[in-house]
Amino acid sequence: MRMVRWICGIKLKDRLPSKELHERLGIGDIALVLQQNRLHWYGHVLQKEDDDWVKKCMEYEVEGPRPRSRPKRTWREVVREDCKTQTEQRGCYGSL
Asked: For the chain, how many structural domains are there in total?
């Protein structure tokens, strides 16, 4: 956010909301951009051959005991959530 304010020539004491600065520069929400990039990559992975190493990595399960704390979310879980949020807008292809 500091760079956005610097580019616009706005200081923090000017008290302009971040949303207004993003609109001035035409910058989208970073979470939405990351979500779109993940789904774009997922589309490429789905088009790969079944014996391709990238597709095999998507199916790979790590052996051994899981750590005691809450498990980290997998890439597949994150993409599944992205598909759910994007389904209303465009639809999502492939099965997770």
From this structure: 1
